[in-house]
Amino acid sequence: MYKDLSSRCFLQTGCIGSCTMNMGMAFRIERLLPLAFVASAVTGIGLHIAGHGTSHETWHNWGVAHVVASFIWLLSVMAHVRRHKHWYKTLVSKRVTCKRLITFFLSIAFLIVAVTCILLVAYVEGPGSSIGLWHYKLGILLWVLSLIHALYRK
């Protein structure tokens, strides 16, 4: 029905340039996904290790790095989910296979880790909280599910 992407974008938004720019920007942000994933995992583990040390400044620096890396990962995941929103729309109607099950559990784990992140940032001061430990353990589960998800796609 549509000859090219720009005609479809024009029909949806009424403006060719903004749709093309948004799709291009989303694609560029999504390309950060693996790098931001690794940065978030490394800084999260570094933050956990620094929580066992005596220097609050070191823990704080790891915390800032983890928040920045995880925010970039969140943005790239949002672009990725937006690109694959049809998958979520057809989740109930299609048969659940191993690939779909991993993606489903990955989505749930990501949401739970994001909620614990908000709780940590909003309500917890300093290292050693039980919410922080849950966030760390669920983050490792998220890391494993993300790797499985990526390996199934290759």
Which properties best describe this structure?
154 residues; mainly alpha; elongated
What features would you describe in this structure?
- The structure is a single chain.
- The chain is 81% helix and 0% strand.
- It contains seven helices and no strands.
- The model is unreliable at 1-21 (pLDDT under 50).
Outline the low-pLDDT stretches. 1-21
Largest sheet: none
> What is the mean pLDDT?
79
Specify the number of helices. Answer: 7
What order do the SSEs take from the amino end to the carboxyl end, as H and E? HHHHHHH
Radius of gyration: 19 Å
Structural class: mainly alpha
Shape: elongated
Separation of termini?
31 Å
β content, as a range?
under 5%
In helices, the fraction of residues equals over 70%
Number of strands: 0
Protein topology:
Blueprint: H1 5-13, H2 16-30, H3 33-50, H4 56-83, H5 85-89, H6 98-123, H7 130-153
